[in-house]
Amino acid sequence: MNKGKLIVFSAPSGSGKTTIVKHLLGKEDLNLEFSISAASREPRGEEEHGKDYYFISLEQFKKHIKAEEFLEWEEVYRDNFYGTLKSEIERIWALGKNVIFDIDVAGGLRIKHKFPEQTLAVFVKPPSVDELKRRLKQRSTESDDKINMRIAKASVELATAPQFDTIIKNYDLDTAKEEAYQLVKDFVSK
């Protein structure tokens, strides 16, 4: 594999990481390309295959695991897998770009451990668990049961924050976006 830079953004659902990543992708000077994760679930809302995720069946996902075609993968919820195909990273590096990830905490830490020198691992911390719950309900994309599962998982994820290179506190979105931009700009220019 080539030696491009890897920028990982991880956080509990509703923390603002996706909004921050989209902001950074709009900054041409960072030379970023989004790593599209594979998911064994159905698309939600306006999500598109090949843009938001590679939506593949549970059976296909397990075949990719067996063939060791993932850089990292996780069973985030029962029979609900997410992962990064090695071919996705190779595709982006072949374009001469840096890879930016919007992935779960476990996956983010796995990438950091596999590529410690070329990875910047950023944890986006929400103002509070109550604010997370409010944001998830406001999305109107999931059932109350799914939201409660995400909130329960958030407490565990928040405990991993110190394992990341840096923590961005997303209390004010504009401030968080600017902080993220400066961090990534400094990292990719090394």
UniProtKB/TrEMBL annotation:
Keyword Transcription attached? no
Q: Which SMART domains match?
A: GuKc
| Domain named Guanylate kinase-like: residues | 4-185
What the entry lists under SUPFAM superfamilies is as follows: P-loop containing nucleoside triphosphate hydrolases
Its domain of life reads Bacteria
Q: Does the keyword Nucleotide-binding apply?
A: yes
List UniProt keywords, sorted A-Z: ATP-binding, Cytoplasm, Kinase, Nucleotide-binding, Transferase
Q: Recorded E.C. number(s)? A: 2.7.4.8
Q: Which reaction does it catalyse?
A: GMP + ATP = GDP + ADP
Q: Which InterPro entries match?
A: GK/Ca_channel_bsu, Guanylate_kin-like_dom, Guanylate_kinase, P-loop_NTPase
Provide the protein's localization.
Cytoplasm
A Pfam family: Guanylate_kin
Annotated positions binding ATP: A11, P12, S13, G14, S15, G16, K17, T18
- Gene Ontology molecular function, alphabetical: GMP kinase activity
Q: Which NCBIfam families match?
A: guanyl_kin (TIGR03263)
**PANTHER family in UniProt:** GUANYLATE KINASE, GUANYLATE KINASE-RELATED
Protein family: Belongs to the guanylate kinase family.
Role noted for this protein = Essential for recycling GMP and indirectly, cGMP.
Query: Under which name does UniProt file this protein?
Result: Guanylate kinase
Q: What is the lineage of its organism?
A: Bacteria, Pseudomonadati, Bacteroidota, Flavobacteriia, Flavobacteriales
